[in-house]
Amino acid sequence: MHTSKDICLRFTVAGLHLLEIITRRIEKKDVILWNAMISGYARNELYDEALALYYQMQNEGLQPDNFTFPCVLKACTGLLALERGKEIHDCIISVGIESDIFIGNALIDMYAKCGDLDVARHVFDKMSQRSVVTWNAMIAGYVQSGQCDEAFKLFYKMQLMGVNPTSVTVVNLLPACARSEAFRNGKEVHAFVKKRGFDIDGFVGNALIDVYAKCGSIDDAVRVFVAMSRTDVVSWNAMVTGFVQNGCCVDALKLFSQMQYAGVQPNSFTFSSILPAIGHLTALWQGREIHGYVIKIGLDSHVFVGGGLVDMYSKCESIEDAEQVFDRMSQRDVVSWNAMIVGYVQNGQCELALKLFYRMNQLGEKPNSVTIASVLPACARLAALQQGKEIHDYIIRRGFDSHVVVGNALIDMYAKCGSIELAGHAFENMSQRTVVSWNAMIAGYGMHGHVDEALSLFYRMKQAGLKPDHVTFINVLSACSHSGLVDEGWHFFDSINREYDILPSMEHYACMVDLLGRAGKLEEAHDLINDMPFEADSTIWGALLGACKIHCNIELAEEVAEHLFKLEPENTGFYVLLSNIYAVSGRWSDVAKVRTMLRNRGLRKKPGCSWIEVDNKVHDLY
């Protein structure tokens, strides 16, 4: 005969399966046995089964005790079953054991993770006794819900009340610093860790690395990593991710190599972190090496890794490799489909992007807002207005019209497809707008020559309390350029730094050069280029060369062309533009010289290409 104590022991040694076999032989089960069974299911994340046993226990007339309820509440937490949790809370009150500290901790955890912070705090405040676990649960709840200020208030309050934070407290609190980019708070917590002598190896060190990386202080993250005497794969992943997040992609690759020399086996998270670095560097051969390594250690079937490989190959402009990875994936999630659609768009294969979107729907896959925001630019680039309208109908049917990112993509698509009216409707129908939304609409008005509407929208944006960013001014200056508003352009250009504390970028200068050039103020544009705080790129010199063609300034055109031939010696467009400037002036011998230069350098003019949409199909015209 087995006692309840024996069965609990057998459960811990032999596991849940053996527990089920043994308990079937026992006709009368006591509370200890029921608790052991419920606990076993909850620990193995079989939450529905744990709750079923709880209700069965009550039906058989047994009263749950203070050991039952924490396990049952854990099951509610795992299922995010708030209403069931409330029922069990009522039962706890009726039994009269709500003052039990373990039950209180479980209630706080359940309510916090189910999103009801007010009730969690009410339970916390009513507790006559609190352990450090109680404080940790409440702090974690605030952090998870994004209420980082409340989390820090509780952290300081617990110390004032004589409760010593533990390493778990610190690990719970540090994500609050990362989420709100509260660098100063992160430094304070780090100082607290040093003062209390906490071991930075493991969870604390990993959390500190994450905080510093997300706050942009990669040097501090490196110092923590180097100071750790014991590092695991999580530590290395945190540091690799930190480098990538801060644009230090070369350092990320170096660290990935060091990780292997140190004998640390990369996992799926490692590859999900390092592959974006390779894509950013367009380091195709290194990407193929890592792909081979992924296959070698058997992670090629992992859905996150597969999606990362698709994205990496797409950014390295090897769309065929991306297609092969995508086609070989045994499982695909929406992220994988999105990566392939974005890859097609990035590589100019917009028709294939649209086909893949339709295929995705035919196979019953469910697109998300990112999918829609990824496929609409394909319509924009193809000027496929009818297909864009069909996708808009799909958006409304599926309820995506409330997503800001989708609204922004619709504005951009309609504007680039030539329907500024529909772009305006999409903008006005948005329930929420970000700076990106206003920028997209200003850009749309600008490209259609509606400068008054563009500038009016800029002032309306300010009245709505949004601060213009650097993209806003690129769009405003571009609108001024298309309409020849030189004085207004200078006003906005001067205000970028003076009123908005934004340093003018290369794009802002390019807009001003284009504006001045179109208005015939070529020398003024030339002087602006010479006064720039950085070397002009081909975009700026190209804008000035285009202005030279409009106003037939051959002498300046020849000077500008020399700059362009040095910056982009293989760009045939600049040679052709200079040749056309000579042709307009009847200087045919110079036209011949430019054509000879093209031949001698082995360059050929690329044929132009246009698209036309007929019967809902896009056709190429060369």
Written overview of the protein:
By secondary structure, the protein is mostly helical. Helix content is 72%, strand content 2%. The chain has 36 helices and 2 strands. The protein has a two-stranded antiparallel ribbon with strand order 1-2. Helix 3 runs parallel beside helix 5 and helix 34 runs antiparallel to helix 35. The longest helix has 14 residues, at 82-95. It is elongated and about 105 Å long. Residues 1-14 have low confidence and may be disordered.
Strand content: under 5%
Number of beta strands = 2
- Using the CA coordinates, give the radius of gyration: 32 Å
Order of strands across the widest beta sheet? 1-2
Tell me the number of helical segments per DSSP (H or I, 4 or more residues long).
36
Unreliable runs, pLDDT <50, ≥5 residues? Answer: 1-14
Distance between the termini: 88 Å
What coarse outline follows from CA principal-axis ratios? elongated
Structural class based on helices, strands and sheet pairing: mainly alpha
Question: What is the compact description of this entry?
Answer:
The chain is 72% helix and 2% strand.
Features:
elongated, 622 residues, mainly alpha, single chain
What's the topology here?
Layout: H1 4-14, H2 16-23, H3 31-43, H4 47-59, H5 68-79, H6 82-95, H7 101-113, H8 117-126, H9 132-144, H10 148-160, H11 167-179, H12 183-196, H13 203-214, H14 218-227, H15 233-245, H16 249-261, H17 268-281, H18 284-296, H19 303-315, H20 319-328, H21 334-346, H22 350-362, H23 369-382, H24 385-398, H25 404-416, H26 420-428, H27 435-447, H28 451-463, H29 470-483, H30 486-498, H31 506-518, H32 522-530, H33 538-551, H34 554-567, H35 572-584, H36 588-600, E1 610-614, E2 617-621
Helix pairs in contact: 1-2, 1-3, 2-3, 3-4, 3-5, 4-5, 5-6, 5-7, 7-8, 7-9, 8-9, 9-10, 9-11, 10-11, 11-12, 11-13, 13-14, 13-15, 14-15, 15-16, 15-17, 16-17, 17-18, 17-19, 18-19, 19-20, 19-21, 20-21, 21-22, 21-23, 22-23, 23-24, 23-25, 24-25, 25-26, 25-27, 26-27, 27-28, 27-29, 28-29, ...
